[in-house]
C-alpha cells in the first residue's frame, strides 16, 4: 500500500499541467521551511513564475537554480519551472531539449523531500500531498487540511 502512495504522487507529478505542478511543488517546499523562515530564492522564483509565467520569471528561476546551495532542496521547484516546457530553460537554452520528464521529476522530488521532513507517518504525509494535487487539479489553491489519523 505504501508503494501505491508513492506511485500516485509520481502519477500526479506527470498529470498536472506545468503551472499547477510547480505550485504543488512550492506548497511542498513551504512544508519543509521553519515558521518565519525567509523564502529561499529558488522557491520565491518558482512562486513568482506560477503567478506570472513569463520568460523573465523563468530566467529568474534558472538563475536561482544556478546560484542555490546544494543543500537547498527548494531548487527542485525552480528546476520544475526551468524545464516546464520540455526545454532546458530561457533564452538560448530554449533551443535544446530538457531531460525527458525533468519538470515532473523535480516536482515529484520536492514532494518526496517534504514527506521525509514532515515527521508524520508516510500514509498521512503522502495523503496530504495527494489531496493537495487533486484540489489543485480541480482549480483549488491546494491548501487542504491535514488528516491527522490514518483512515481519516
Give a written overview of the molecule:
The protein is mostly helical and 152 residues long. It has one domain. It is 61% helix and 0% strand. The chain contains seven helices and no strands. α2 packs antiparallel against α5 (75-82) and α6 packs across α7 (122-137). The longest helix is centred in the last third of the chain and has 17 residues, at 102-118. The chain is globular and about 45 Å long. The model has no long low-confidence stretch (mean pLDDT 95).
Keywords:
single chain; mainly alpha; globular
- The low-pLDDT segments are none
Overall shape: it is: globular
Order of helices and strands: HHHHHHH
**Largest sheet: number of strands, sense, barrel closure:** none
**Count of the separate structural domains:** 1
Mean of all residue-level pLDDT scores: 95
Number of distinct helices: 7
* Straight-line N-to-C gap: 16 Å
- Percent range for β-strand residues: under 5%
Cα-atom radius of gyration: 15 Å
Oligomerization state: single chain
Which percent range fits the helix content?
55-70%
Structural class: mainly alpha
The number of strands is: 0
Amino acid at each position: 500500500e505504501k508503494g501505491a502512495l508513492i506511485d500516485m504522487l509520481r502519477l500526479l507529478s506527470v498529470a498536472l499541467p506545468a503551472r499547477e505542478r510547480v505550485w504543488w511543488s512550492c506548497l511542498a517546499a513551504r512544508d519543509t521551511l521553519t515558521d518565519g523562515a525567509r523564502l529561499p530564492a529558488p522557491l520565491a522564483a518558482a512562486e513568482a513564475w506560477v503567478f506570472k509565467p513569463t520568460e523573465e520569471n523563468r530566467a529568474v528561476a534558472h538563475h536561482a537554480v544556478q546560484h542555490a546551495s546544494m543543500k537547498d532542496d527548494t531548487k527542485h521547484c525552480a528546476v520544475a519551472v526551468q524545464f516546464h516546457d520540455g526545454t532546458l530553460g530561457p533564452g538560448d537554452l530554449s533551443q535544446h531539449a530538457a531531460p525527458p520528464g525533468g519538470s515532473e521529476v523535480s516536482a515529484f522530488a520536492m514532494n518526496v523531500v517534504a514527506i521525509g521532513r514532515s515527521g508524520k507517518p508516510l500514509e498521512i504525509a503522502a495523503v496530504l500531498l495527494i489531496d493537495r494535487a487533486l484540489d489543485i487539479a480541480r482549480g483549488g489553491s491546494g491548501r487542504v487540511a491535514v488528516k491527522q489519523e490514518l483512515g481519516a
